[in-house]
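Please predict the structure of the following assembly.
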Amino acid sequence: MIKEEKDFKEQLSLRGAEIEEIIKKYLPGEEDVPTSIVEAMNYSLLSGGKRLRPMLMQEMYKLFGGDGVGVERFMAAMEMIHTYSLVHDDLPAMDNDEYRRGRRTTWAVYGNAMGVLAGDALLNYAFETALQVLYNCGTVEDFQRVRSALSVLSFNAGIYGMIGGQVADMEAENSQEALGNEQILYVHTHKTGALIKASMLIGAILAGAPDSYRADIAKCAMDIGTAFQIQDDILDVVGDSAEMGKPVGSDEANGKQTYVTINGMEKSVAEVNRLSGEALEIIQSFPGDHSFLEMLVQYLIERRS
Amino acid sequence: MIKEEKDFKEQLSLRGAEIEEIIKKYLPGEEDVPTSIVEAMNYSLLSGGKRLRPMLMQEMYKLFGGDGVGVERFMAAMEMIHTYSLVHDDLPAMDNDEYRRGRRTTWAVYGNAMGVLAGDALLNYAFETALQVLYNCGTVEDFQRVRSALSVLSFNAGIYGMIGGQVADMEAENSQEALGNEQILYVHTHKTGALIKASMLIGAILAGAPDSYRADIAKCAMDIGTAFQIQDDILDVVGDSAEMGKPVGSDEANGKQTYVTINGMEKSVAEVNRLSGEALEIIQSFPGDHSFLEMLVQYLIERRS
């Protein structure tokens, strides 16, 4: 491993640990509430995830000069929303997964009904957590930023964002017809891209980034989300199953239509490179020291597992 | 039917129709989103419900002199949250109900996975809808009211309110041990009481009711919610199954522990009367013409089906 890569991995793990502590600060209290639901929520939240969304949010917040603590609640809320989507995705009614990253899924441990309720509780608690920031607004400017962050969060988590992507993904998987790039890219930009976009935008908004950056940040986030997903499709064909901890070739075996099955390998690799290059170019136009963000994005996109 | 009762029923149906129009105003738009999810959400929302929660909210808003339109979005949001809770309650993973009020449930029409996603989408869209009111705040006072309403909404819908009640209800049903009144009343005040409390409080808060009314409004709402549920338990024993559209005696047949099985019929009827009397006494201390609210509360509690 070259030194720069080693330094980045160390920094990544330090940041992850820091974010873990922030998330723990905002776990639900256990007073006047059935213990079981809090247990199921915490089991789901503290699952050793990489915390990429809050990490992107925090990094954007720092780049644009943020120094308050208001971003912490939004970081925790974002991870709660990401987590609820996984908890519901794993349900027998959805993907019926008993394991995720080698660990039993929430419904597998606490039962099917509690899986539904724990997901609901996490989504609701995300808003409870983020809404409290409205009580820390000292100025009209603060209020406007928090209002905007709340609006971005709720919009991108719902049918115009992540949920829309999940529905489209489900429909694509059940579809007997040939899919076009438009449909595949809708799923990628919504199911994965929407929360990445919201994370980057919220960090920038809370730090008071000028509105003129908004379109670029959104574009950058969509590039990252799309490239991440196409890379997923690529790795399913050429990845190392030992490194990835899951079998390769499962998309083809399942007859799943992906960006790669539609466009071929060569074009897919070229598209990942194009998107990655575009995202990095946009990042270079941001203020501050963006070396960590650059490496994070490269790490996300150009991973081999 | 005496004239007063007839007038009330007419007013009730007029109010219901008015609220139906308000809810329709805030249905999700269909642009850039899979049609199927919007269809499933609208099917769930437009199910001929009685709209009691938004009705209580609107009535409190009027009593305390509210004249803005900000309450409408909260009325729609409240009904979305109530609706999502029914959609998820009906899932095979939960109560496994294919019919509700003689109509097929959401998952029975759109499938199990869509049932999960439609519920998630409604909960998220409720916050999207209510959060927009932050953009209609002209004064600091407006902002403080809306912030407080959002906080009350999210708190009472989550683990410290409705979801907490649902979990406790599920655990009580599965419990082999004898339940005490404390556990039964926890379920009643949370599963049903929390959203009634939130509805009444939000109406009053948005209208600018003095804080001194808060405790009384909360108490009144809890009385209504609890009396409503004990009446449910009573009707399960003495109700007319034709009038109710469901069999009587199902709690006993299912071995379900209720307020009536624990305390007996006489004490249960006395408790409903006490709670109802207390709620009405509190309502009489509210400003404005509260005759409709009084009749609404009596109608809710003293119903025979």
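Chain A has one domain: 3-301. The radius of gyration of chain A is 19 Å.
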